[in-house]
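Lecture notes, continued. The same structure-token format from the folding unit now serves as the input rather than the output. Read the line below as a description of shape only.
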């Protein structure tokens, strides 16, 4: 395994399929060295290697990290399977290098398969370590493959299949771009009392705005995450990376979408990271009165007769009912029961969102009470539950949320 240079300089990882794209990577390797970077090269091509530049980690080692043999991948002759395994193996290899504090950045190039492997490998690289992929697919929607990572996609314009006047230009610019990212420094980084994550939605914005203002007055760095699926996944991922001192989870609506197949599901891991990391959390069932779909025509057939509300031309909200809220309450409690740190659940008795306030379209006290009673029934005795006689967007609710969170942090 390659080591850091004798002066302690970290290395940039260059990853890709050197069997089919050796000419392109040889040029990238030369560009990186010219910029003064130390390179760790990782080959993910299963059909061979190259002698045009030094290879630090060969494809066999990458395959081994995914518990397969390179010869088996060749004999199986299944492109999709090979791409999946090499992506997994590369992710593990890079994670090991990161854990040894050897990595200052990651750069790769590829077409369809190569891009998948590179983006998979980059999932193991923490926030803040630059990640750049020069790809033929950069103009496509790769949000699912990028996930919650800070990955920069750069269009290759031409295929990554041999050097020409355009590829030379863009490869050299890609090298320069990641070199600039590596050596850029933050300006005027302020001292803070700590870092707080907050979840937000259009229907909880007034509450979160007040919470953020109050926490900033106390000197905290406040990061808000839009609860539209990727926002919740990103927040959970960053919590696991140790980026926050506490969580103010005002908007847990993604759990409702997960239950009912909405477009804002953040997956089954939502509302688990803070409990696993043992950091204080104040949790509110914000916007769990609704499930999000696209246009009215996109609402699943079994929900067509339900109470629906057009929030925007491309966003249709469905009111959750007693049955769904009973399930959601139990799920919230079960997730939070596993916490290794202090948890407080705040229940806004006068509505979970802007549109469920009294006289608004989603006002339904029976459905809300089903959620509250289920939470109280299934939560452990050591979880503090407070009922607040206010709508979630009332100033008094926001003030109480911050007050409780600050008390927990100071402990």
């Amino acid at each position: 395994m390659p080591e850091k240079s004798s002066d302690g300089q970290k290395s940039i990882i260059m990853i890709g399929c050197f069997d089919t794209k050796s000419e392109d990577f040889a040029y990238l390797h030369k560009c990186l060295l010219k910029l003064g970077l130390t390179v760790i090269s990782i080959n993910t091509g299963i059909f061979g290697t190259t002698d045009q530049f030094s290879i630090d980690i060969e494809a066999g080692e990458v395959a081994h990290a995914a518990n397969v043999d390179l010869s088996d991948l060749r004999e199986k002759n299944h492109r999709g399977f090979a791409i999946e395994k090499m992506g997994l193996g590369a992710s593990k290899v890079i994670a090991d290098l990161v854990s040894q504090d050897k990595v200052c950045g990651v750069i790769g190039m590829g077409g369809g398969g190569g891009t998948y492997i590179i983006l998979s490998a980059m999932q193991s690289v923490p926030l803040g370590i630059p990640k750049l992929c020069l790809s033929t697919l950069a103009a496509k929607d790769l949000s699912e493959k990028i996930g919650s990572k800070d990955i920069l996609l750069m269009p290759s314009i031409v295929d990554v299949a041999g050097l020409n006047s355009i590829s030379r230009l863009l490869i050299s610019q890609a090298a320069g771009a990641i070199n600039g990212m590596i050596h850029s420094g933050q300006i005027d980084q302020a001292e803070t009392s700590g870092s707080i994550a907050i979840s937000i939605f259009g229907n909880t914005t007034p509450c979160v705005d007040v919470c953020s203002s109050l926490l900033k007055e106390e000197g905290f760095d406040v990061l808000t995450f839009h609860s539209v699926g990727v926002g919740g996944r990103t927040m959970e991922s960053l919590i696991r990376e140790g980026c926050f001192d506490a969580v103010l989870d005002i908007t847990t609506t993604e759990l409702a979408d997960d239950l009912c197949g909405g477009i804002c599901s953040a997956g089954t891991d939502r509302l688990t990271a803070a409990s696993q990391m043992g950091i204080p959390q104040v949790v509110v069932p914000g916007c769990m009165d609704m499930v999000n779909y696209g246009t009215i025509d996109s609402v699943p057939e079994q929900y067509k007769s339900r109470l629906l509300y057009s929030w925007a031309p491309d966003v249709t909200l469905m009111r959750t009912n007693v049955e769904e809220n009973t399930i959601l309450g139990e799920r919230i409690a079960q997730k939070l029961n596993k916490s290794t740190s202090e948890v407080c659940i705040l229940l806004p008795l006068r509505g979970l969102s802007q549109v469920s306030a009294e006289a608004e379209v989603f006002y339904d006290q029976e459905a809300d009470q089903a959620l509250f009673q289920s939470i109280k029934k299934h939560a452990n005795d050591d979880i503090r539950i407070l009922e607040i006689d206010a709508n979630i967007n009332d100033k008094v609710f926001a003030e109480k949320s911050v007050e409780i969170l600050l008390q927990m942090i100071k402990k």
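Point for the exam: The first helix runs from residue 22 to 34.
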